Amino acid sequence: MVKTLINIRPAQIDDASEISGVHDSSWYDAYRGIIPGRELDRMIARRGPLWWKSAIRRGSRLLVLEYDHIICGYASYGRNRVMSLPYQGELFELYLTPEFQGLGFGRRLFNSMREDLARQGYQNLLVWALADNDRALGFYTHLGGREIRRAPEKFGTELRERLAFAFD
Ligand SMILES: CC(C)(COP(=O)(O)OP(=O)(O)OC[C@H]1O[C@@H](n2cnc3c(N)ncnc32)[C@H](O)[C@@H]1OP(=O)(O)O)[C@@H](O)C(=O)NCCC(=O)NCCS
After folding, report:
1. What would the DSSP string read from start to end of 44-106?
2. Is the pLDDT of residue 2 over 80?
């Protein structure tokens, strides 16, 4: 019998440390040189296992992707937070440990997130990404996202641009 090594499921409280590890490594890898260093350190330090435990307890929509029982990615999502944009759902975060990127796992998590939002009645969604995050921009464009908005985002005293991609 061939057992599937890849599993996508809702996060549980006991996953908090592993998710925190995925968050740390993927954020440093994605944002070093984009988000000012001290701000990036602060943002990452805030998201320790206790923060994730509390997010899971609150019932935040959070999926994890396991490969051979190791969590190597997560997606968090919910209702669109920018009410002036006519989209129902929002992908808040989609991150994979660097060694597990480029293997099709991002697409799998994205599809599972979309299916779950659709089950909740959300027919479309958007996602924000920093304009300098080429990997994310290429990925969302490849998956059919359409750029609909640009806006500044503040990191400490510095501004960066972010883009919203819509999926209809
Ligand atoms: C962005 C990210 C989630 C993508 O996940 P991934 O597992 O690396 O991507 P996949 O391997 O699933 O790619 C899916 C498809 O997109 C394509 N793709 C991925 N990145 C691409 C890019 N930068 N440009 C063009 N196409 C891209 C792949 O070729 C693949 O195409 P196919 O399925 O038609 O063959 C992942 O790289 C990641 O975690 N990056 C760092 C964190 C980050 O930037 N997250 C987004 C924050 S908004």
Report:
1. HHH-SHHHHHHHHHTT-EEEEEEETTEEEEEEEEEE-S-TTS--SEEEEEEEE-GGGTTSSHH
2. no
Asked if 116 contacts 63 with a C-beta cutoff of 8 angstroms, the reply is yes
Residue with the nearest Cα to atom 17 of ligand 1?
Answer: 139
Atom of ligand 1 nearest to the CA of 100: 7
Q: Model-level pTM greater than 0.70? A: yes
Query: What pLDDT does 4 receive?
Result: 79
Å from CA of 48 to ligand 1 middle: 25
Ligand 1: lining residues by beta carbon, under 6 Å: 26, 30, 94-96, 101-107, 129, 133, 135-136, 138-139, 142
Return the CATH superfamily for domain 6-167: Gcn5-related N-acetyltransferase (GNAT) (3.40.630.30)
Look over the chain and give the mean of its residue pLDDT values, rounded to a whole number.
96
